[in-house]
């Protein structure tokens, strides 16, 4: 009986650990798509992320500031940047309390990151 209980506990623990795993970032084709921070990304972040009470210089929710190029580029190096906007398992869905961004916008963000998060 003790062996069955131990096996059951280990099985439940493993199932819990596996279920907490983060999904992999969804990849997009970036051929011909070269967004820059100044060109497209700043407007996306300012509209959906770096707003009052969220990820602006004053609020810095979760310690994240997306209100300027340097901070946005540094954050783009973290998987949570794309994982959150892609609404992947294991990440906090962003923008919080809003619908998922449209695929074209998510693709721009993805391609910006893939191209090294250029400023201009």
Radius of gyration: 18 Å
Order of helices and strands: HHHHH
Number of strands: 0
* Average pLDDT level: 89
Which segments are poorly predicted (pLDDT under 50) over 5 or more consecutive residues? 12-18
Helix fraction, binned, reads 40-55%
User: What does the overall shape look like?
Assistant: globular
What is the subunit arrangement here? single chain
- Broad structural category: mainly alpha
Main sheet overview: none
**Number of helices in the DSSP assignment:** 5
For the record, give the distance between the C-alpha atoms at the N and C termini, rounded to a whole number.
66 Å
| Strand composition percent | under 5%
């Amino acid at each position: 009986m003790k062996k069955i209980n131990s096996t059951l506990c280990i099985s439940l623990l493993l199932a819990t650990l596996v279920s907490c795993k983060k999904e992999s970032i969804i990849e997009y084709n970036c051929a011909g798509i070269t967004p820059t921070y100044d060109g497209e990304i700043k407007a996306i972040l300012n509209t959906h992320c770096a707003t009052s009470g969220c990820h602006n210089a004053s609020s810095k929710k979760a310690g994240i500031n997306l209100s300027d190029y340097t901070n946005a580029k540094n954050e783009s190096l973290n998987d949570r940047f794309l994982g959150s906007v892609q609404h992947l398992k294991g990440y906090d869905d962003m923008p919080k309390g809003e619908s998922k961004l449209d695929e074209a916008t998510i693709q721009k963000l993805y391609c910006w990151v893939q191209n090294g998060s250029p400023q201009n």
